[in-house]
Amino acid sequence: MIFSQLTHLPIIFQVDEDIFARVGHLLERNKLSFNNILVVSGGTISYDLSIDLIRKYKWDSFVLSNNDFSEIEKLKAYCLHKKHDLIIAVGGGKVLDSVKRVCYLINLNHISLPTIISNDGLISPIAVIKNERGKTESLPGSMPMGVIIDLDIIQKTPIKYLRAAAGDILSNLSATHDWILSYNKNGEYVNDLAFQLSRSAANSLVHFNEKDLHYKPFLRQIIQGQVNSGIAMSLSGSSRPCSGSEHLISHAIDYLEVGNGSLHGIQVASISLFILFLQDKLLPEYIDYAKSTGIPLLFTELLNSTENRVLIEIFRKSKEMRPGRYTILDTITEVEFIDNFTAFKNEINYLVR
């Protein structure tokens, strides 16, 4: 049985407490039968968690050492040799994205059991993989046929990962404004449902009453936002609903290696505040949300240099990162970029005094 990618939706989607060990039951309940299941994990915490599944159900296992092209080829070859008909991916983004990529390449079903929720890639059709130069590439991936998330496990992860998850969804706001800008300028097609799913994912978090990263109802909302973002990208056929100029700047920072190693979700969220200022869409509640979740209000706090020459270099490189993706950055010059950031910084400093 091959799960159809045309449905865009997982057959299984469960978010609950103490649910990790009930994977086999969930397969049975949904009348899904597989003969040769492989559990793929990382080498540390996710491996320790996967051991219980492997022993309980007597499934095969594979430990990923990295998310690069070489490791992808090893996993692909192993699956083909062993003739697995389902992969259960246990771990963070590197494991989930590696499995998505392999399943895309060999047309294989997979189920995701995230141990970390740091970005909106839970069910997106995009896999972030390292190339031969050690740089990340966004490549087509297979959406999972199931997502099973144990809130007890997620709640115990380091706060930075929860912050990144909450932050990544905030960037949907600037991304969707860029999408509309491109529609108005170039007539780029906008999928209405994808647009609304992306925007509502962000707004549901911004307007949540208790923005506590360890509060399970808020975590549920973050996870739902990630799922809606993934569906939005699948419906649109690209990352457009959730990736605009804020992601281009983030990719430029990573490419130029001028960041301080912050997680992707934290970085794009912080940049998104400045982009919303550029778009004349920055609202007080967005700043309040960033403060409540610990997102830096100035993305320069995440750089190893705040000199104007570095900002100009980032601006130039960002416009090369995704040729053809029209954003607010295409409407301003280098001088205007610096001038606007100075004005933004002054406004933020005034607000937090």
UniProtKB/TrEMBL annotation:
Positions annotated to bind NAD(+): 93-97, 115-118, 124
Residue numbers binding glycerol: 120, 168, 247, 264
Domain of life, per lineage: Bacteria
UniProt cofactor(s): Zn(2+)
Keywords, alphabetical: Cytoplasm, Lipid biosynthesis, Lipid metabolism, Metal-binding, NAD, NADP, Oxidoreductase, Phospholipid biosynthesis, Phospholipid metabolism, Zinc
Pfam families in the record: Fe-ADH_2 (PF13685)
InterPro entries found in the cross-reference section: G1PDH (IPR032837), Glycerol_DH (IPR016205)
Keyword Cell cycle appears in the UniProt entry: no
GO biological process, alphabetically ordered: phospholipid biosynthetic process
One Gene Ontology term of the molecular function aspect: metal ion binding
ATP-binding as UniProt keyword: no
Signal peptide stretch: none
Cofactor-binding details, from the entry: Binds 1 zinc ion per subunit.
Name the UniProt record assigns to this protein: Glycerol-1-phosphate dehydrogenase [NAD(P)+]
Organism: Arenibacter echinorum
Organismal lineage: Bacteria, Pseudomonadati, Bacteroidota, Flavobacteriia, Flavobacteriales
